[in-house]
Amino acid sequence: MWEYSDKVKDHFFNPRNAKVLDDANAVGDVGSIVCGDALRLMLKVNPETEVIEDAGFQTFGCGSAIASSSALTEMIIGKTLKEAEKITNQQIADYLDGLPPEKMHCSVMGREALDAAIANFRGEEVKEGHVDSPLVCKCFGVDEAKIVKTVKENNLKTLQDVINYTKAGGACGSCHEKIEKILQKVLSGGYDNCEEHELRMKDYPGNRPAAAEIASAANTDHPLWQPVYVLLEQIRPNLQADGGDIELLHVENDHIDVRLSGHCDGCMMREMTVSFIANLIKERLGVEVLINPVGAQEANPDSFNR
Amino acid sequence: MKVYLDNNATTKIAPEVVTEMMPYLTEIYGNPSSMHDFGVPVSEALNVARRRVQNFIGAAKDSEIIFTACATESDNTAIYSALQAYPERKEIITSAVEHPAILQVCAFLEEHGYVIHRVPVDSHGRLDMDFYKSRLSDRVALVSIMWANNETGTVFPVPELARLAHEKGILFHTDAVQAIGKLKVDVKNLDIDMLSFSGHKIHAPKGVGVLYVKYGTRFRNFMRGGHQERGRRAGTENVASIVALGKACELSGQHIDYMQTEVARLRDKLQNGLLKQIPKSFVTGDVENRTANTCNIAFEYIEGESILLLLNQCGIAASSGSACTSGSLEPSHVMMAMKIPYTAAHGTVRFSLSRYTTEEEIDYVLEKVPALIAKLREMSPYWKTLPAEETSGDAAPSFNPVFKGKK
Asked: Between the N and C ends of chain B, which has fewer C-beta atoms within 10 Å?
C-alpha cells in the first residue's frame, strides 16, 4: 500500500466539499474513466469580485486523487480567481504534507481542473494540451507540451519523475526514449525561450491563420522573396537534420508565410523555429517581419497551387 | 475485526507447518550435502518433503520434484530450459492473462527474436481454443499456460491443452500456483511436462517453490554452480522452508474437498450477497470454471484503490486490478484482455478465501462493503451523473471529459 501522509488519509476518509454545487457558475471537467481518474470541479464565483465563494468536487479515482480534490477546494474557497490561478500542483501536494511520487499526477489533475473551471467561468474555450503538441505517451494521451511544462515547474530530473508526475510512459513504456530526449532538452535549456503561455495550446489557434486565409500564390517577384528564399535554403539542411523542414509560401513587407513540417511543426518547435527565422531575417536583411507558420496537417495543398 | 481475504496474494502459515519447520531453524542446521551426523537428518528431511510433494501432485517419481526459491524461478527455469533443449524451435505459446513471471519473460524473449503467441480470452476469460490449436507447430519450443488465473480464479482446461500440445510433439508447462490446493492434481496421468507452484499460497512460508519435471523431459539448468537437486538446481537448499512446504502440501491435500465444498459455499455467499446488495456490480471471469476460493467483482464507476483503502479501514484485506494499486498506471492486463469496460476495469476487487475463512468473517464483510461502495459512488462524477433509473440500465454516463486515452 502507498505511504500516504496523515493529511492525505484525513482528506480521503473525510473529504471536504465532496458535493454537487447546483448553483456553480464555473465547472471544470478533467481526466477520463480510461485513465482511471477524473475530476469535476464546481465553483461558485462572485461575478463582481471574482471571489470563489464555494467549491465542490466529484472525483473518480484513487485515494490521493480524492484527497487532492478535497485539498484544492479548501485552498481556493475565499480566494479570487486571480489568486487561485497562481496555485501550483506542488502547492496542492504540499498542502497534503506531500504525495508519493507515483501519485503526483493527482495534484496535476487538480491544477488542470482549476484551469478548466476558470476558463469555463470566463467563457473561454479550454483547449486540451495535446491538441497541437505532439503526442508522446499514447497510453495516457500525454503530449510534449505537458511534459515540458511539468518538468519545468517541478524541476524534474529523471524519466521516473516524469512518469510519476504526468503518467507519461507509465504503461507500455514504448515512449521512454522520447521522454528521455525531451527531458534532456529541457535540462540543457532547449525550451528556455518557450514561455509558459506558449506551451499552453489554447494560445495557439489564434496565432495561426487558417489555410484558406493564407495568400495563395508564391509571389516570387516580391523584392524580399529572393533574399528570404536564399536565407531559408541556408538553414534548411539543419532543420532537415533534425527531422523537420520549411518551405517559403508567400512574402509581404510585414509578414511571411511559411510551411513548417516534420519536427518543426510541433507546438514548441513551431514557436522556436518561427522566432529563429524572424530574428535571422531581421539580422541579415534588416526588416522586421511576422512569420506566419502553416502546419503541414493544416495546409491544404490546393490553396497553394491555384 | 480483521478479515484476510487476499489469499491469492499469500496465505498465513499453518500452525502445523510452523511446528514442523522450527527444528530446522534451530537445532537441526547441518548442510544436507554433508555426510556427517549433522547433515544426514537434514538430507532425510528433504526426502520426506519431496515425497509429500510427490504424493500431493500425483508425480510418478520423487525425483521429478525440484525445489526452487519461488514459482517465478520455476517459471523462468521451465521456459529457458525448453528453449535450450530445443534450440531450433523459436516460438512459444502462452496466454494473454498469464502471471508476469511468464509474460515478462516472453516479452523479453520477443525482443531477442523469439515469436510469442499469446492466446486471447473472451469476455469471461475463457481461452480461444481455435487460436491455440492454430498456433501448435513444430516451430514451438514450449506451451506455457496457467492452470488457474490469479485475478479471477478462472480455470483453464490444462489437461486438454497439454494433450493437444503433445499430439504435436510440443513440451507443455503450466503455472499452477493458483490451482494447487484448490483442484485435484494428478500429473502422472496428464500430458504435463513441467508444472510450477509455490509454498506461500498454500500456507507454507514465502521463498520456496517447486518445479515438477516429468521423467524423461529434456531439461537444461537455470541455476548452475552445484550438484543439489540432482544437479538440476544449484544452491544450498532452503531446508526449513522445504520441510514446511512438504507439510503444507500434505495438509493441503487433506483439505481439497473442504476447499471445494465449504470454502466454495462461503465464496458464493460472499459473492451473491454483494451482488444482491450493490447495483452495477458484476463478477469477472468464468463463473462456471473457477477456483473455489476466488471471486473478482467489478464495482462500476469507482476506483479500486479507494475501495481497498476503505476496506482496510474496516479491517478487510482484499486486492484490486486497478491501475493505482499496482503502480503500473493501467488496469490489470487480465481485465484488459477480457475487455472489461473501463467503467468497471478500474473498480475490480478480488476477494480470495482460504480454509481459515469463517462464516462470521463473511457476514462482517457483507455488512460493511455496501456502505463503502455507496460512499465512493456518492463522490464519483460518473455515478452522480447517471440518470436516476440508470442503476439497472446500460446507458453511458453524461460526465465525459475529453477523451485522453487509447481506444
From this structure: C
Which pLDDT belongs to residue B11? 98
Are the Cβ atoms of B302 and A171 closer than 8 angstroms? no
Tens of pLDDT along B283-315? Answer: 999 999 999 999 999 999 999 999 999 999 999
pTM: 0.75
- Name the CATH topology of A135-207: Arc Repressor Mutant, subunit A (1.10.10)
- Coil vs helix vs strand at A179: helix
Closest chain A C-alpha to B336 CA, distance in angstroms? 11
Q: ipTM of this model?
A: 0.86
Give residue-wise pLDDT tens across range B59-68: 999 999 999 9
Fold of B15-254: Aspartate Aminotransferase; domain 2 (3.40.640)
CATH topology of domain A6-121: Sufe protein. Chain: A (3.90.1010)
Helices (H) and strands (E) in chain A, counts: 13, 8
How far is B400 from chain A, CA to nearest CA, in Å?
Answer: 7
Cβ-count burial of B219 within 10 angstroms (0-12 exposed, 13-18 middle, 19+ buried)? buried
Q: Does A63 contact B379 at a Cβ distance shorter than 8 Å?
A: no
Residue B401 has what pLDDT?
45
How open is the CA angle B81-B82-B86, to the nearest 5 degrees? 120
Residue among A8, A60, A70, A176 with most chain B CBs within 10 A, to mutate: A60
- Residue A35 is among the residues annotated as catalytic for this protein: yes
> Residue A119 pLDDT > 60, yes or no?
yes
**In chain B, what residues touch A62 (CB-CB under 8 Å)?**
303-306, 322, 324-325
Does the annotation mark B314 as catalytic? Answer: no
Of the candidates A36, A58, A163, which has its C-beta nearest B303's C-beta?
Answer: A36
